[in-house]
TrEMBL record:
GO terms for cellular component: membrane. Residues 341-562 form the Protein kinase domain. This is L-type lectin-domain containing receptor kinase IX.1-like. ATP binds at residue 371. It comes from Prunus yedoensis var. nudiflora. Belongs to the leguminous lectin family. Residues 248-257 have a biased composition (Polar residues).
Amino acid sequence: MAAKFNGNDYPTICTEGDAYIDTQFLRLTNSSLDNDMNGSVGRATYSRPFLLRENSTGKLADFTTSFNFAIHSNNKSSYGDGLAFFIAPNGSFIGTKLAAGTTLGLPYNFASPKDTAFVAVEFDIYANPMVDPPYEHVGIDVNSLSSSITRPWKGGIKEGKRNNATISYNSTSKNLSVAFTTFVSNTSDTQVMKHFYYIIDLKQYLPDWVVVGFSASTGNYTSLNKIISWNFNSTSLGDHDSKVGIATDNQTPSAMASTNSNSKSRNKSIGLAVGLAIGGCAVMFGGLGLIRLVMWKKRETTVESSDEDPIVHELIDDEFEKGAGPRKFSYSELAQATSNFKEGEKLGEGGFGGVYKGFIPDLKSYVAVKKISRGSKQGLKEYASEVKIISRLRHRNHVQLIGWRQERKFLLVYEFMPNGSLDSHLFKEQSLLTWDARYKIAQGLASGLLSLHEEWEQCVLHRDIKSSNVMLDSNFNAKLGDFGKRPSIQQAIQVLNFEIPLPILPSKMPVATYFAPPKSLSISTDTGGSHGCQTESSNYGHNTNSSEFTTSSPAANSHPSI
């Protein structure tokens, strides 16, 4: 994933030890082209320090970093030792002592361990039962080479398969969250996402100014360690920069600056800028691109003019303009954010369309873009219904709507939930939820429902409470999503009595939900004040989810949704 930058603030990467940047990757240890891969140690950091804590207020920054990487043993069955993402004091040193590989290049002070200061997330591929589990794992290290918490990991090391990781820190909850890909087995090409977290107050372990980056090492057993792309974002403290990163995937830097202190250190910094050598080609292809852009714009205008629904558009515009929250995006913005709705960015498929992960540069954050299918009027009405509800809702336990787009394509832009949906953790073995986490999720869901039923100006019935509609942020806070109104029992009765026509259903129906057994066939309206609002169905759904929290088994449903 290419990192997004502002203005002319090109990032620079400083490398130490055996780390270097070639035409495609950031390599942390010697490659197979080097004479000796044994005992290789290297690290790479962003060239400018990062303000982690504001001294005057003691406030810590929040941050999120995502990177794509690969560790390759060249088909050898024995290999070592791994790589790590780390945060260390500004001016810290590369860990070169014990070249047998145990340090992963981290700045551990063997002479005075109490003076060691770093926090790292390690991807350890060498079994060392003296300090860590005897298998490949991901772990969080705090001032120690022995991890505070670990999770098993299958990284496809023999074949050098690509992996992804996202690390987030919430300064309020002191939650350090790690999400990483792992293969189902050593022989499988199927990857799944795993998650875990660790509560830590970083200001107790790190100074105000720190450096961020990667380190790696090899010992008697070796491997190739490379970073393919990297993105780092943080909240701003004062007037300091809040975004750094590199993008090396299929990009060739054309401007390079290096400073060598000695032959072993090989400190280098590289600026990602556009070289003058490609200027002539850019002019030629730019002209062709301009012609193509004009033709595409003309076609886009034709498509939009013939594919709009003025009634739905007017309804949606009216709803959004009543509030100052969500913003209107252009289609090109969202297409660029999601790599043109690339399948690889797809988070899932709902009843009315796909959901894609994207990155909005000016917001400096990831988003989830819901692409609404335009196959039927029912789909547009569902879209308008969802807009009408969520554009007015603001609660910490509701998935927040960031923006929308309605010309050409119907799109809704939500805040991104790094830990996915609750059902993926309960039923799909994505990660093991602790009892504390389950209790926290149940509390959050109850709080979100209470706000819908009693704390808003009108009572809102969600009517689709199920674990797949409960989303989890980076700190495993529960957020209720998918407010699209579903057909009610009253609508079904009207259809059976031939009072209204049969509704046009979407091509892909949502999965069954948990409705309460009807108390009678006389159903009151869904909205219209708390006095007339029948909340039993939503409460029933919440209670059903609570049983799933306890058992990690899907609840039996004798009353599926209509």
